[in-house]
Amino acid sequence: MSSRIGHLLAPDALVNKTLMVVGLGSLGFPAVQHLAMSGVQRWILVDFDTFEASNLVKHPGMRKELGRLKIEITKDWILDRIPDAQVTCLPINITTVDGKKAFKQALEDCDAVMVTTDNKNSRLVANRIACELQTPMIVGTVYRTGFGGDSYLYHPESTGCFECFIAQSEAISIERTVAESKAATETEQAIQEARYGRIPDPSFGLSGLASDIASIAALVSRMTLTALLDASVNDLFLEAVTGDSSSLSRLESHLLELPYDIRGGKQPPTQSSRTVWLDSNDGQRYGIEPLCGECSSSVDPNNDRCCSWCGAIFDEKLSAQKGAVKTDIQVNWRPIPPIERGHGVNHVSMITRRHLIDDAEFEGHETSRLRIAFQPFQIQSNYVGKNEDCPWCKRGEE
User: What is the pTM of this model?
Assistant: First the structure.
């Protein structure tokens, strides 16, 4: 591994890790490039599609490679960058009977699978087999016209599977809005109708600018690297926390969510707003909750001028106007529950450019149309847990 990234990744962190990638198109191929340059050396590439002229506007492949399998193009790129990499190519369709068998057999030897296909069925097949084998899976999807996308991590021990995500996506604001506007990648039928933009050729219903898709590829690769490194709150991480191990910063840099704001062996000065401190001497977490000096109700020291419960005044100018004595806000550290294991965040939505949608229809007394505007560079992270009645999560736990 290059010494230039040695401070971020332990030299042997990825040596024995095998990653399967399903879908080597305009999303999957750039994600592979990011991961290969991070040190991933063992690959299983799955795709039966060939590189066509219509792909040149989005895919990094070269014109001289037209007609070749995308997995072969990807393999050549990996070996050019990492000559001693191990790359296996599987030109299979995982939604067929034989494809499912081959996919499952290959996945048994993998540490994670990254799914970056452009159709729902392949994602569902991969999810169900990943659940059965208890293999971490990262799914990357691009919204129609490429204005943004999702990256979702399924980890058998701490998150819901991809079907749990689909079932709960109505509660996730960006995804819900996109779904309501019939622009999410999961609504294949609506996409093929291509009402937005009045696109005459349905084959371009998912097309987007290469720069937008590349942003999602970077997001997906970042989450995949986290899964390969098993960068979660686990025994290794908790051991490093106690004693403030020198390896802790490296471990922290790959977590999707930090369970504290400050860490160290010495109590920091009292903060003026809510925060969490981790005592690296014993692993105990402490939190700050600003309280009213009169009634001990929770308050916001930045925005509350008075206590909403007892009426005590915190603002000096307001107390002078009211002829009252100013009350101090009490800010002290208090013990809080220990760090929970797992990744915390496992879903990230990103909007990369402005996008207007005007084909959302709502049935009522009369049909109305809603125009929804997305502002560029929005990003939202979420935790999606297991659905209690998810048959695929249960199947993996048996």
Answer: 0.82
CATH topology of domain 3-232+344-397: Rossmann fold (3.40.50)
R_g of the chain, CA atoms, integer Å: 25
Residue 340 burial (CB count, 10 A): 9
pLDDT of the residue at 209: 86
CA distance 251 to 164: 28
Q: Sort 292 into a burial class: Cβ within 10 Å, 0-12 / 13-18 / 19+.
A: buried
**Distant-in-sequence, close-in-space partners of 24: CB < 8 Å, separation ≥ 6:** 32, 45, 47, 49, 70, 71, 73, 74, 116
> Is 276:285 a contact under the CB 8 Å cutoff?
yes
Across 199-213, b (16+ Cβ under 10 Å) vs e yields: beeeebbbbbbbebb
CA angle 379, 140, 217 (to 5 degrees): 70
Tens of pLDDT, residues 329-352: 888 888 999 988 999 999 998 988
Q: How far apart are CA 384 and CA 87, in angstroms?
A: 32
pLDDT digits (tens, 9 = 90+) for 180-215: 444 343 333 433 343 333 344 444 445 678 898 999
The string of pLDDT tens digits covering residues 374-387 is 778 888 899 999 98
Q: In the structure encoding, which two tokens stand for residue 108, read together?
A: 């048994």
| Mean pLDDT of the region 246-272 | 86
Q: How many CA atoms lie within 13 A of 270 on its CB side?
A: 10
Q: Which of 350, 390, 397 is nearest to 124 (CA)?
A: 390
Residue 214 Ramachandran class (φ > 0 left, ψ -120 to 50 alpha, else beta): alpha
Report the alpha-carbon distance of residue 225 to residue 207 in Å, rounded. Answer: 26
Is the confidence at residue 20, as pLDDT, over 70?
Answer: yes
* Residue 179 to residues 184, 188, 310, Cα–Cα distance (Å): 5, 11, 44
